[in-house]
Design goal:
The chain is α+β, with helices and mostly antiparallel strands. It has one domain (3-233): Penicillin V Acylase, Chain A (4-Layer Sandwich), CATH 3.60.60. The chain has helices at residues 53-56, 62-70, 125-138, 146-157, 167-172, 174-177, 181-184; strands at 3-8, 18-29, 38-40, 46-48, 80-85, 93-98, 106-107, 111-115, 194-205, 209-218, 221-233. The chain has a six-stranded antiparallel β-sheet with strand order 8-1-2-9-10-11, covered by helices on one side. The chain is globular, with a radius of gyration of 18 Å. It starts with a strand and ends with a strand. It holds the Pfam family TANGO2. One of its GO terms (biological process) is protein secretion. This is Transport and Golgi organization protein 2 homolog isoform X2.
Length: 236
């Protein structure tokens, strides 16, 4: 179970506004080996964690890449992909494809979106609740110092209030969800051996300045966390 909230505006009206604000949780077994997001590639030009390396290392634009993926989507278990081209020169494009929904990827219109273990904008109660919290922070984003904005978005991602009842979550996997339903139905999942292991915040301002903040659990211990921040300019 993972969750993502994001808002994008390719042409912000104010120089203090953000082109992209993204807040995401990665949920999985605490014992699964993983690495922190870091720079890699031939010239250390890619910042990422474990997945989506094919897109990050290709010259294809986001829509073309997702069209290619969609041709083989039926061969895989359920997945969602969000791909974006953020270019100060050409303008920003954000695309989405889920292989349990429409057969072709879509280009998203500017706005605010939420995604969890279902298709984009599926109205699970935890998703709707978290999206509202996210929106309340985003509405203040131009007035907040960057550190304060990141801190408030992290608070959203670490909200453990169960949003029940929610038949949609219960129906998705009754045999394993029922015992942990009160934890599973929160934005931040916190179970004995499974739950939210990483919080990620991405901010892209009007000038193309990127702030990438990752808060990661240490040594499989939910009481110990490490926060790392990377800042850089988008390439044209």
């Amino acid at each position: 179970m993972c969750i993502i909230f994001f808002k994008f505006d390719p042409r912000p009206a104010s120089k203090n506004a953000y082109r992209l604000i993204l807040a995401a949780n990665r949920d999985e077994s605490y014992h699964r080996p993983s690495k922190l997001a870091d720079f890699w590639g031939n010239n250390n030009e890619i910042l990422s964690g474990e997945l989506v390396t094919n897109f990050l290392t290709t010259d294809m634009d986001s829509l073309s890449y997702l069209k290619k993926v969609s041709q083989e989507g039926h061969l895989y278990n359920g997945f969602n992909l969000i791909a974006a081209d953020l270019s100060t020169a050409k303008g920003d494009v954000v695309c989405y494809y889920g292989n349990r929904g429409d057969p072709k990827p879509i280009v998203l219109t500017p706005g605010t979106y939420g995604l969890s273990n279902a298709l984009l904008e599926t109205p699970w109660r935890k998703l709707c609740f978290g999206k509202q919290l996210f929106l309340e922070v985003v509405e203040q984003s131009q007035a907040l110092p960057k550190d304060a904005l990141v801190a408030q978005l992290l608070d959203v991602l670490n909200n453990e209030e169960a949003q029940l009842p929610d038949p949609a979550i219960e129906d998705q996997g009754q045999e394993y969800i029922q015992p942990i339903l009160s934890k599973y139905a929160a934005v931040c999942v916190r179970c004995p051996d499974y739950g939210t292991r990483t919080n990620t915040i991405i901010l892209v301002d009007a000038n193309g300045q990127v702030t990438f903040t990752e808060r990661s659990m240490l040594d499989k211990d939910p009481s110990r966390w490490e926060t790392n921040t990377h800042e850089f300019m988008l390439q044209s």
